[in-house]
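User: Before I run my own analysis I want an independent prediction to cross-check against. Here's the chain; please return only the structure tokens and, at the end, one sentence I can use as a sanity check.
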Amino acid sequence: MMKIAIGSDHAGYELKKTVRAWLEEHGHEVNDMGPYSDESVDYPDYAHKVARAVADGSCDQGVLLCGSGVGVSISANKISGIRAALAFNPEIASLARQHNNANVICFPARFTDAETIRQSLDNWFSADFEGGRHERRVNKIEP
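Assistant: Structure tokens:
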């Protein structure tokens, strides 16, 4: 199994706890980067922690949640080597891995539910990067 960094903001805190438990039940080692309550926080702080853990290799993949999923995905993508994808259903999660080789997956806590996230993570973890024409495109992401 993998070592997964997970983080959220206050809007994603409750779902993060559920996702963390599911990841652990499935044998993953989870590094919870916070927050540890639903007190208001700034999402970039936690997105950067998760992204840095993936970028430096201390974690294999990252999972982020915020209200819309957009803020954490934008923030994570500021870290060199990160390809964070906003996933709102299982099909998008698969494509994020297959076509974009995403290494951080982001969820909109206010617009999804735990079961959709579980199915999306199942798809994301089981999908493989297809390479080929997609590899050429992924290689163009970082200058």
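Sanity check: The longest helix spans residues 13-25.
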